[in-house]
Specification:
With 316 residues, the chain is mostly helical. Helices cover 53% and strands 3% of the residues. The protein starts with 17 loop residues before the first helix and ends in an 11-residue tail after the last helix.
Amino acid sequence: MVTLPQENAAPLPLDRNPAAIYLASLRPTGRRGMHRALAAMAETMTGGPFDPLTFPWHNLRFQHTQALRARLADRYRPATVNHMLSALRGVLSQAENLGLISADDFRRTTRIKSVRGETLPKGRALDGAEIKLLLKICQKDISLKGTRDVALVAVLYGAGLRRSEVVKLDLKDFDPRDNSLKIRSGKGGKDRLTYLGHGAGEVVKAWAAARGSEPGPLFLPVNKADKTMKRRLSDQAVLWVLEQRGKEAGLEHFSPHDMRRTFISDLLDAGADIATVQKLAGHANVQTTARYDRRGETAKQKAAELLNNPFDKDDD
């Protein structure tokens, strides 16, 4: 537990609350994660559950943030700690903007080094046989739901979209002329254009024809009567569909995000330029794309063989 000074410890009104203002500046999807990060840090410093909106962040000083960093590093993975520290810096920046801490105190308090360390990557890439099994299971289902699920797998694997991006797609975002998908307000609020290969494009066209031409979400729920429901498929429903289809195919557990990892790994394995893969995936920087690479040691071995080998003995 970190001991904090008690002056000005009363909860601040929302228009003077640095945590509230920081969270309000984020997109809804990012807001939830950063709220959890702030709650975890408040709990770490107080020894029990603490509402991050009532925690006195503006009372933190250099010694507190250094002690907090050390405590977090003992409890969480490096990437998680750095994610939390990013939230902390954001709140303290708002505290300075509000005049709750001086510029000098802000500079000292946020002088927190990122935690470095290598950890095993989360998730896995599916192999080609698993992708084929998953598609085969969906294709065997001749119902409307089966047609939708084939298209869902095609978009998740064939375009590497995030769950949140898939459920935001509207029918108008798919252009059957070139199999392009317009991703609106992706991560970071950015729009981008990505493309499906011919096979993936064909199954999405089949689903688009089956769902009908009525404007609205591309992916719709299908009820027990095998009729579409006029509302957007939820991201939780995408998770459930993949879990069910994966079980039917007898596959080892995988997540929707593993489809995205597989998309990136397969493109890199096929020789696609990493900068192009970065753009297709919608990553802000190429380092993020590299972290998704799940090709393993075989890729390193293949890369080594690309070098011209001057060590072979000439035949006499």
